[in-house]
């Protein structure tokens, strides 16, 4: 079945440093979604990428969808303590468009 | 709108007990799903539904039952709890069709002793 993998599993940074998490799919994706989960909270939708090579920005967050639509990345510039949490990517199932397969997530901690 | 609500927030069960985790949404979403979250394993799909009366298995369905009698409600039943079912359970909903953003409930933290 479809697999979605994320690296790294954990990332510790000093406040002000940049952070990147990478997402790779075993199959070509029609689109990819990113979610953020704060400690003790629930996942919250951040963004969806649809087009090959698409780049979208949300303030200090930059999301990219690979040309082959099999990988994606999330880059945070100058991390802040409010960025702490786990970031998940998710891709749609090949047979059921609404069903998502989530990556394992990257847990980000930021030292002030 | 309350969004997606889940009850209870916390639950402790003994091995062999049964219980139902409740999930409700007020956004008229056709698609609803249950995930379990374990450390280092991300979100794994247990069961999902594309509308009232229609359910299907996800990645890890064993030991769980679901039903969908209304658009709003999607309860998850643990038939005979096992320690391996200790986890955090999230219910989510979305519009049906091309992937739309999923709205997650606050979660239920379940411990089976």
Question: Would you give an account of this structure?
Answer:
The complex is a heterodimer of chains A (112) and B (113). Chain A has 112 residues and is mainly β. Helix content of chain A is 0%, strand content 54%. Chain A is built from no helices and 11 strands. Chain A has strands spanning 4-7, 10-14, 19-25, 32-37, 44-49, 55-58, 61-65, 71-76, 85-92, 100-102, 106-111. In chain A, the strands form 2 sheets. In chain A, strands 2, 4, 5, 9, 10 and 11 form a 6-stranded mixed β-sheet that branches. Chain A is globular and about 45 Å long. The termini of chain A are far apart. With 113 residues, chain B is mainly β. Chain B contains no helices and 11 strands. In chain B, a hairpin with a 2-residue loop joins β5 and β6. The N and C termini of chain B lie far apart (36 Å). At the A-B interface, β5, β9 and β10 of A face β4, β5, β9 and β10 of B.
């Amino acid at each position: 079945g479809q697999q979605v993998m994320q690296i790294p599993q954990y990332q510790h940074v000093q406040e002000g440093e940049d952070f990147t998490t990478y997402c790779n799919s075993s199959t070509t994706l029609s689109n990819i979604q990113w979610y953020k989960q704060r400690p003790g909270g629930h996942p919250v939708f951040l963004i969806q990428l649809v087009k090959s090579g698409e780049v979208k920005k949300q303030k200090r967050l930059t999301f990219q969808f690979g040309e082959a639509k099999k990988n994606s990345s999330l880059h945070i510039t100058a991390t802040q303590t409010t960025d702490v949490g786990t970031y998940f990517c998710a891709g749609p199932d090949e047979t059921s468009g609404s069903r998502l397969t989530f990556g394992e997530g990257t847990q980000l901690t930021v030292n002030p | 709108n309350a969004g997606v609500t889940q009850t209870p927030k916390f639950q402790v069960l003994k091995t062999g007990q049964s219980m139902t985790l409740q999930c409700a949404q007020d956004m008229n979403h056709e698609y609803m799903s249950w995930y379990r979250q374990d450390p280092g394993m991300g979100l794994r799909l247990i069961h999902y539904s594309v509308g009232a009366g229609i359910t299907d298995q996800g990645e890890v369905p064993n030991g769980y039952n679901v039903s969908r009698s209304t658009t709003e409600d999607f309860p998850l039943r643990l038939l005979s709890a096992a320690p391996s079912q200790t986890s955090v359970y999230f219910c989510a909903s979305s519009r049906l069709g091309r992937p739309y953003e999923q709205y997650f409930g606050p979660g239920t933290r379940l411990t089976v002793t």
